[in-house]
Each structure stands twice: as C-alpha cells, then as structure tokens.
C-alpha cells in the first residue's frame, strides 16, 4: 500500500513539515508495511517559500525590514539561481502582530516591498511571491512605497500608511518606481480568487480575520474602491473585479496593476515543484489537510488542490485532517475529498487549541491510521 501525505501547515500552530511528519508517524505505527511519501505543501500562504526552497534546493537571504505596524523584524526570502521566492507573511504576516495589538486599519505592507526591492537589487529575473497570511489591508500601497512609488493627498503630502490612509489618496506618482519591477517575471502564488472589493472582496472576507469590526470592514472596502479608481487611471488597468485582486488585503491588485504580475494558484506552483502528481500516480491513498477547513477551502486552498491533482493521477481515496472545521466544510466533499477528520477533542480556548496542536493532531492521525489499517484487513 502506498500513501502520500501532503498537508499544509496548521496556521500559528504547526508547520507543514510537522503536520506531514506527525501523520506519517501514525501511519508507520499502524501500517508498518506501507510505502509512505511525505510532501509538505502550501498554497501561497505561510510555508510556501519553505516548501519551494526545499524542493528546488535554494538558499535563504535574511534582512531587517519593517513589520506590519512599523516595528523592525527579521525576514527572509529564498534564492534559487535567478529566482527569488518571497512570502508576504515573512515581513507583513498576521503572526508578526500579537492578537491584542492587531490593527488592520494601520497595518502596512512596506516590509514586503523591502524584500522585493532587495531581490531586485540582487539581479533576479524571476520572482514567485506568496500572498497568504497577511496582516494588511492597504492594497499593496506600502509595498509600492518601498519600491519608490508615492501615494499623495490633495496637498501633495504622503498619505498615512495602512488601509485607513487610502481615504486621503488623491494622486499616485510612479516616476521613482523601481525600474526593474516591470522587467522581471513575477508570478503571484495565490490561494484565493476574491476580487478587490464588494461582498467577496478583501475587506469583507478577510478583514474580520485580521481584527476588523463591521464598521471598519465598510471603511476599508470604501478605501479600496477609491484606490482602485485612481490605480486604474495610473496603470490603465481595471483592477476591482480581477479574480485574486483581493488577496492579502489587495496586494494582488497592486502586483497585477503596477508590476504586471501573473496570478497562479499557489497549490499548483508548489505541487509542480515537489512532484505531487508523479508521487500520486501509483498511490492507494492521499492524506492532506490544513488548520481550518471551511467554505473558503474550495477556493484554491491546499486540501482541495491536492485532491484535484490526486484524482487526476488516478488516486481513488483522499482523506483530509483539519485542525478544526468551519461553516461550509462539507463543500469539500464535492471536490474530491472522501472524508474529513478534525482535531478538536474537547472544548478549549483558541490559545489552548494552538498550544496543543501537535498533541491533538497526533491523536486524530492515530485514529485515522487505525481505521485505515482495519478497513484494509476487512
């Protein structure tokens, strides 16, 4: 029996490698004769650069940059020949801000721009940038500012950083924008297809996850719409309704409009790099998963992407293990997943769930492996 273990990370709890190793260990205990292939996955969110650097044999470059709220942080990106692999969460991720300090109105993507600027100065010709896990909702204005763009109010002054500052935007000055930004091939590894604004836009869907109240969501959505109008004039590109423009608080829109970037499902980029399809060709079972499976999982997230690739390779059984389940989790059954198991065994606070993530996963993985062994023997 061949089992491919290909999960994503459990955000803020376990890396994709830790999840994969924990599931594989359970399979070894109860299916000792099984052939196991572990492939830590990512879909553009946290862990994307790690998966790609590991798969492609790259190395890391680390530098000090500005965090989401302006504090100095150490961030890294991967280099593989003339390819830079950047993860937005490294500099501008939600995990960079303590839960009691999160401020989606002021959070800024400037640090991500510093990583891009450094990569351009290294002479890279290709860039892959993963957009998941961001703390920001500033339409990438901070990132573009770090690259030389100027976002000005009616008096010619720089607008405040963060999504709140976009309300004051009157003019975008691109005269000092890094000249190589549009010369390199930029591919955005994106795990969502949301537009910039509206009911499925960046603010409405992802703002609450970053701490935005209902009133703040409405404010941020208006500000993004205002930005889209001015950015459209500056770039001659209609950005508002482009699928994926709403990724990472509108960073997708900035990269499409100002850098000529192409958006690709992050799961496809990582799957190609790690050889998922090839590994699945003679597999009997694929086990995937992520921290939370809900209605968003069908919009480009790892478990559904892995299931799609596994089915195309001829795998008949796909199981997912989730840290927890949310509303709409049953939708994944329409996308190639046969069964979903969650890791919540008792009532607990979010802090306790994140703290006990490895123990909870070990218990669930053990139960799943026992079930597989028992069914195989029937």
From the 3D structure, determine the CATH topology of the largest domain.
Answer: Glycerate kinase, domain 2
- The CATH architecture of the largest domain can be given as Alpha-Beta Complex
Strand content: 15-25%
Q: What's the number of helices?
A: 13
Major sheet: size, sense and barrel closure?
6 strands, mixed
GO molecular function, one term: glycerate kinase activity
Keywords: Kinase, Transferase
EC number: 2.7.1.31
InterPro entries: Glyc_kinase_flavodox-like_fold, Glycerate_kinase, Glycerate_kinase_RE-like, Glycerate_kinase_sf
Structure description:
It is a single chain. The protein is of the alpha/beta class. It has helices at residues 16-30, 48-56, 88-92, 110-121, 141-146, 202-206, 214-235, 251-259, 266-274, 276-280, 302-312, 350-355, 357-377, and strands at residues 2-5, 35-38, 59-66, 72-80, 83-87, 126-130, 150-152, 171-173, 185-190, 262-265, 285-293, 318-325, 339-342. The protein folds into two domains: 2-39 and 275-377, 3-Layer(aba) Sandwich (Rossmann fold); 48-266, Glycerate kinase, domain 2 (Alpha-Beta Complex), CATH 3.90.1510. It has 13 helices and 13 strands. α1 packs parallel to α13 (357-377) and α9 (266-274) packs across α11 (302-312).
């Amino acid at each position: 029996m061949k089992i491919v273990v290909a999960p994503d990370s459990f955000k803020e709890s376990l890396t994709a490698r830790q999840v994969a190793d924990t599931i594989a260990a359970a399979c070894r205990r109860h299916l000792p004769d099984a052939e196991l292939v572990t492939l830590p996955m990512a879909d553009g969110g946290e862990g994307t650069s790690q998966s790609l650097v590991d798969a492609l044999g790259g190395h890391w470059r680390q530098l000090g940059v500005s965090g989401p709220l302006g504090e100095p942080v150490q961030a890294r990106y991967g280099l593989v020949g003339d390819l830079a692999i950047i993860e937005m969460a490294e500099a501008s991720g939600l995990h960079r801000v303590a839960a009691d300090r999160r401020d989606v109105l002021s959070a800024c993507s400037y640090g991500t721009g510093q990583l891009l600027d450094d990569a351009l100065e290294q002479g890279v010709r290709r860039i892959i940038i993963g957009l998941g896990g961001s703390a920001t909702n500033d339409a990438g204005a901070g990132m573009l500012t770090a690259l030389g763009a100027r976002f000005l109010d009616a008096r010619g002054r720089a607008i405040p950083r963060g999504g709140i500052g976009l309300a004051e935007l009157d003019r975008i000055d691109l005269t000092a924008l890094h000249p190589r930004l549009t010369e390199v091939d930029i591919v955005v590894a994106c795990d969502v297809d949301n537009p910039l604004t509206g009911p499925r836009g960046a603010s409405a869907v992802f703002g609450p996850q970053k701490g935005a109240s209902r009133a703040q969501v409405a404010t941020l959505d208006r500000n993004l719409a205002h930005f889209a109008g001015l950015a459209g004039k500056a770039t001659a590109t209609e950005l508002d309704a482009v699928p994926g423009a709403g990724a990472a608080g509108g960073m997708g829109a900035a990269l499409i409009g100002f850098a000529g970037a192409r958006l690709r499902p992050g799961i496809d980029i990582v799957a190609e790099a790690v050889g998922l399809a090839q590994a699945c060709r003679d597999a009997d079972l694929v086990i995937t998963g992520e921290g939370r499976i809900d209605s968003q999982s069908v919009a480009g997230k790892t478990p559904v992407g892995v299931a799609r690739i596994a089915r195309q390779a001829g795998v008949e059984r796909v199981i997912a293990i989730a840290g927890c389940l949310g509303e709409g989790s049953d939708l994944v059954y329409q996308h190639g997943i046969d069964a979903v198991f969650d890791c919540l065994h008792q009532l607990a606070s979010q802090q306790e769930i994140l703290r006990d993530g490895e123990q909870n996963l070990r218990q669930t993985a053990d139960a799943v492996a026992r079930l597989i062994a028992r069914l195989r023997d029937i």
